[in-house]
Amino acid sequence: MSTKDTRVSGTQDGFSAEEREAMKERARELKAEARRDERDAKAREKGEADLLAKVAEMSDSDRAIAEQLHALISRTAPELFPKTWYGMPAYAKNGEVLCFLQPADKFNTRYSTLGFNDPAMLDDGTMWPTSFALTELTEKDEKTIAALIRKAIG
């Protein structure tokens, strides 16, 4: 009887290499978070430093969006805690990730995505958007995102 592995190369567990790397990054983030308290100023500085380090690693187009978005969110909602989440820039409220930026290059997609998680209070009837494609940020986009952030905080 043959014990030959019939799994597709590179997808041994059903996850792409990029997804496996994101999960490893998240495990490292969780270990680091366990050692710090969100309310601590040093933890906030470390969270922002981690976020900015990830932004610095991005391609030029992703980095431009991430830098604009970071400045916008920091201005609009200084109470949000900057951090990384699965290796992506993210912003938390009460320990839960409220919103995040998925850079296009991270998962080889056509555009970056601004996403909102369950804690975001974007509810509007029985259906509402929770992610938005970004190819660049115009002044009009920034106003829309600022309004979304304010609404998401509740």
Relevant terms:
154 residues; YdhG-like; 5-stranded antiparallel beta sheet; YdhG-like domain-containing protein; disordered N terminus; Aspartate Aminotransferase, domain 1
In words, what does this structure look like?
- The longest helix is centred in the first third of the chain and has 18 residues, at about 15-35.
- Helices cover about 45% and strands about 20% of the residues.
- The N and C termini lie far apart (about 60 Å).
- The model is unreliable at about 1-10 (pLDDT under 50).
- It contains 4 helices and 5 strands, in the order αααβββββα.
- The protein has a single domain (about 15-154), classed as Aspartate Aminotransferase, domain 1 (Alpha-Beta Complex), CATH 3.90.1150.
- It is of the alpha+beta class.
- Helix 3 (about 60-75) crosses helix 4 (about 140-154).
- It has a 5-stranded antiparallel beta sheet.
CATH top level class name: Alpha Beta
The SS-based structural class is: alpha+beta
Low-pLDDT stretches: 1-9
Counting DSSP H or I runs of 4 or more residues, the number of helices is: 4
Gross morphology is globular
Number of strands: 5
- Placed side by side, the strands forming the largest sheet appear as 1-2-3-4-5
**Strand-residue proportion:** 15-25%
Helix amount = 40-55%
CATH topology heading: Aspartate Aminotransferase, domain 1
Q: Mean pLDDT score, rounded?
A: 90
- Please provide the ordered H/E string of secondary-structure elements: HHHEEEEEH
Rounded Rg: 17 Å
Q: How many domains is the backbone divided into?
A: 1
- Cα end-to-end separation: 61 Å
Q: Any guess at the CATH architecture? A: Alpha-Beta Complex
Major sheet attributes: 5 strands, antiparallel
